[in-house]
Design brief:
Strand content: 15-25%
Number of strands: 11
Shape: globular
CATH class: Alpha Beta
Order of helices and strands: HEEHEHEHEEHEEEHEE
Strand order of the largest sheet: 5-4-3-6-7-11-10
Helix content: 25-40%
Amino acid sequence: MTDTAELARKVRELGPWFHDLEIHGVRTAPDHPLGNFLRDLWTQVEPAFPADMTGRTVLDIGCNGGFYSLQLHARGARVTAMDHDARYLEQARFAARELGADIEFHHLDVYDVETLGRRFDYVLFMGVFYHLRHPLLALERVARLPRERLVFQSMLRGATGAYPVQKDYDIGETAMFEDPTFPAMYFIEHEYAGDWTNWWVPNEAGMEAMLRSCGLRIEAHPAKEVYFCAPARAEG
């Protein structure tokens, strides 16, 4: 029988939590300022995954407290989760242990993801891209990992919609840079939303262009900031 008071004490000790998990009736972040955002995001990305993931491998990059890892483990997937923040990993390990979820955790930076030495059927790369000083480098490395699908989410700002980009432009042509739908990223020198780790925020066309340039085919854009992508190039 779970000692609810003791469990609640451990949850408090590990706080503050960014992921609001429910562990045997104890919630980790019941007063989260973003409300029910995790479950809202899950409804957007859930269609990317089979209902039965038995035998499928998943990599959760930037797993935080482990919400998505736990969801996919519950579907039968073999889940590997990683985060560069040791505190988040401690939370995720605690939640997995309490819930009996056999998840492989790594304290790893996204730029070093290739050191895992393997590919995965599905890769989640959500809520990380805009926190990186070198986002395209990270995306290039992540894009090599999925065999079936990359589930990607990033903050987007600026104009929406596609821009009819030509294959090349004369050095004297500059008008396209004045168009707000031209592929672009905004650099945050100081803070955005009170967070100094928000570094680069793309517009929609910019994000889609970067996904394609890293060898990914956009299969679906089911929500404003969410993309389902597959490898566009044949495996060597």
